[in-house]
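Handout, section 4.2: multi-component inputs.
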Amino acid sequence: MSIVLHIIRKDLRHYWFLAALSVAFSLLATLGWYWAFIPALGGMTSSLFVGQISPMIVEFILSVAIVQADPTVGDKAFWRTRPIPPGALLTAKLAFLFGVFAVPSLLVNIYLASSMDASLPVLAGMVIESTGMIMAEALVAAFIGSMTSSLIQAAAALLGANVAAVVFAVMKPDLPIFAPWRFDIPDHAPRMAALGLYSGIAAVLLLYHQFMTRRTARTLVILGALIPAVLFSGTMLPVSIRVAPRGEAAIVSAPEPSPGVQVMLFPPSQLWTSGYERDPSTGRTIRTHTVAINAAVRSVPEGRIVQLDSLSSRVLFENGEQGVFPVNSRVFWNHWTQQAQASSICRRLGLTPPTLDAEKVRPSWLRLFSFSNEMARKYSGRRGTLSVALNLHELAFREDIRLPAKPGATWVREGQMWSVGKVGIVDGGAVAELRHLRITSMLITEGEARPDPWNNNKHGFVLLNRKRGEFALSADRWNSQDTPIWAMEINLKHIKFGDRWQAGGIPVKGPIDDAWLADAELIILSAEPAGTLEKTVVLQNFEIPMAEDKPVQDPAPFWQ
Amino acid sequence: MNAIECEKLSRSFGRVPAVRELTLAVPEGSFFALLGPNGAGKSTLLKLLLNLLHPTGGVSRVLGHESTRLTASEFRRIGYVADGQDLPDWMTVAQLMEFCRPLYPTWDRALALRLQTMFDLPGDRPIKKLSRGMRMKAALLSSLAFRPELMVLDEPFGGLDPLVRDEFIQGLLELPGDDRPRTFIVSSHDIDEVERLADDVGFLAGGRLLVHESADSMRGRFRTVEIVGSRVAAPAARPAGWLEVRQPSENVLQLVHGAFSPATESELGGMFPGATVSLQAMTLSEIFLVLARQHRGDGGKEAA
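Output:
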């Protein structure tokens, strides 16, 4: 133990600057401070560089340098003829990397999580996930460092490994390892977690072997055997790790679907040139076209909105041929217009909404399916009966959070924190900068801490001025989101509020001003599932149109 | 007991053999000089002994432990200084001493300070800013201060100027008995310097140990011989021990006798009646050159 500490002290004395830099990056990212630096440093590029690339470069350099300070290749290393057990040396190196890379982040994480009332399981999950992710990078870099004798060699090895992986991916594009989510592999998150776990174990084994034997050629042979073994184990063998993926999950089920909801399609359809995709069957990049049609949802109960998760289309052509088209799970379509949102929000708060008539909501373009250039030529201009099966869900708002619309106001509950940054008047409207921090963990598969909440970012915002009996709804928003320390999700939102309304739904003349804002409170509503339903819509005389040169702009959902 | 033992020890780099089936025993308490030209395999042999390289055949033991199984505890008893060895050169000499001290239970701080003074080493200067000679002395200091039982020096004099070389050797010679390692093994191609120190000598060439015997024995059995007389000529069948036979003129015969004994002079007198036979003792350096030339001339196959 004393030798381990002795070596750590020695390395720390030599690499204190890089270690301090790494700790600074960790703290910077962990605390989310760099949000404040982004504008000063020039936007997303700086953010990417400061927040992501720089720490990775420093981590790689430091990991390699620490290992190469007492090299395991060559026959001239000082430590090799000194009473330093290789196991103690490896322990010291790993402990150093853990101390520099993981500990600062973990301490700040634990502090923040505790201050955000995160439960112990969530805290533990976050710590394990963060440590695993941080150390995975360090272990890979350390292994490369243990097989090379200079930083240049290590960088070349890393580059070579990446080039090899890219070449392999190009030659074998259908291997799920390169994009498991694209192949609709069930439980791809557990598989990725298993891959990460097996890779970490393999890296530790390889490091151990290299440190104990210093037989670089043999370690390379073992590496060559472990790579396919890890890939096979992670992608082919059954995995029983329970983890949730990061991202946004679909609602699986909800209790009370509304029976009367109708979906209406409004011909004519349009054919858009939608871009390029890789054809999984051939691996080639193909030009794709999307068939879209105007659609609207009717008879939605008041206070609710309807969203579409996925749809599948079939066309029975006039000649009797059946056309079955790919399932569209990225529909980017919803019935949730600003008006519907406003209506739902106001009703939930007991306010009279500015516009009540949901039936007047205009239709919007719905992407039915995408197909290749070749299929477009085959089917364009043909008529038939369209049958669309839609998976929908209903949402309702619930009031979740109230806090003063003042800088520094904070709300905390169960690992989540909302805090108000700046609030002020910009271009005639009130803009609030909100920071939403959420402790998540892929190891937490239930509850609000799971990393793929279906309702993440589905929030409604209202400014309420009780003194004047007025309110304002969010009219526009822009988000930026990051998970700077893997498990802590930071979401920065700028919410712009538009016109003022009286409680009875009457517009108030004049924009929001500072005096109005001074008395305002901010209400944040969260969406909750109100029901899931499946609808099949049949449209006679449907025609797949001829391709147009100019693509039609697709309406994006308001939360994007 | 032997401090070092090798049995048919071999090491090849690809298809190139560096050490070939070498068998050697160095007794405890001796100062063994491993001599040989560049590329003879001296450094490879020492690295095999200390497990810095893995053998491709045979076995070696150091202080009773198989080389491939040397652990940290054995290295508390072994000092190693090599030309070109990596040192943590960002450290100062004082920091190097501080780093090494806790690694050795037998580290003698007073001895370290004495050696530092003797070697005139500045404690506050980073090793990377030291001259080559200073670096070697710093390495030697860090290897002597824990009183190793075995000291392995691999080409310690390479590139050192004569003054530093003398200081280095003087440092080793002047160490009192308690401070001095019991066994030394020194590889060098600079025999003059080792001659002052060595008890035993091994000549290595082409990865083979050509000779291994005590320095005194070697000095005793090699002589340069000059025979001056009327029409002296070497016999057709070369007698045992005759090396490098030359005949500068028909009246002069020169050779190196590698099997000198008190009877040699009378034997030669008998072979060349009336001729003047003069014999002269050889230095290890001269003997080494003869052996090296012999080895080269015989395609690396013959041992003296």
